[in-house]
Amino acid sequence: MLLAGLCTVDVVQRVADFPAPGEKVQSLAVDVAAGGPATNAAVTVAALGAEATLVTVLGAHPLAALARADLATCGVRVVDLAPGLATPPSVSAVAVRDHDGERTVVSRNAAAQADFPVPEPDLDGVSAVLVDGHHPALALKTARAAKERGVPVVLDAGSWKPVLDELLPLVDVAACSAHFRVPGPSLTARGVPVVITTAGPDPVRWSAGEDSGEVAVPAVAARDTLGAGDVWHGALAFAVAGLGNDVAGWVRHANEVAAERVRHVGPRSWTAAIRELGKGVR
């Protein structure tokens, strides 16, 4: 699978409680890992047992080496579109609350990264692509190439971005949260065949043409919610590639994988636990 979008360096502090303004607290643990929607989705795909190629921007800054090493350990192949970029990669400062796994995130995302050339994506052997829209030119080129090849395009909608006006007609499956707001016509009216809406622990709703439904989310004790949405999207894309047109089956699989993720503490501790969940999909 090919996943195109943002890669950040996440500095994750686990805390007993979030500090008040002006307060200093000591963390219980600290992790450094690669993050970002497409990146965490790529880690998920690899953990489920499929080949995962992440197309992103990292550059030559020393911080980028941290993300690159983490992704290599996770079995993700990285295609860096700006390998000579001297500026730091996007960095996210994350705090995860110990007793319930809730998190806060402060991130610059891709806003400070300069334009870069985007080559034609290599889609040989690719059964699905996922784009997150954080690098607009990359998302558009990837989605157009996939559309021409008949490869399904999954969009991690996240928040509304200007590129979505042009990107949505190329998307086969758009997944968004209940907080996602579309200016003007709905995603369906904009030509997206399958629209899926998550709502945290509440059932996930989906619509595909005249069909629609909802799938319950497994009830688990959440220990760490960081990246859970990204993991859900990666598992969804994995299921789109392996389960035919079974939309309810896609959602059920993604729900199971994300539920397993939140049961584990830390940015990578969950990866081994989801391997079995991929075997019935490929």
UniProtKB/TrEMBL annotation:
Coiled-coil annotated residue ranges, if any: none
Listed InterPro entries: Ketohexokinase-related, PfkB_dom, Ribo/fructo_kinase, Ribokinase-like
Organism: Amycolatopsis saalfeldensis
MF annotations from Gene Ontology: kinase activity
Lineage of the species this protein comes from: Bacteria, Bacillati, Actinomycetota, Actinomycetes, Pseudonocardiales
Membrane-spanning ranges: none
Chain ranges of the Carbohydrate kinase PfkB domain: 5-178, 186-269
Pfam family, one: PfkB
Keywords carried by this UniProt record: Kinase, Transferase
Family annotation (PANTHER family): KETOHEXOKINASE, PHOSPHOTRANSFERASE SYSTEM TRANSPORT PROTEIN
Full protein name: Sugar or nucleoside kinase, ribokinase family
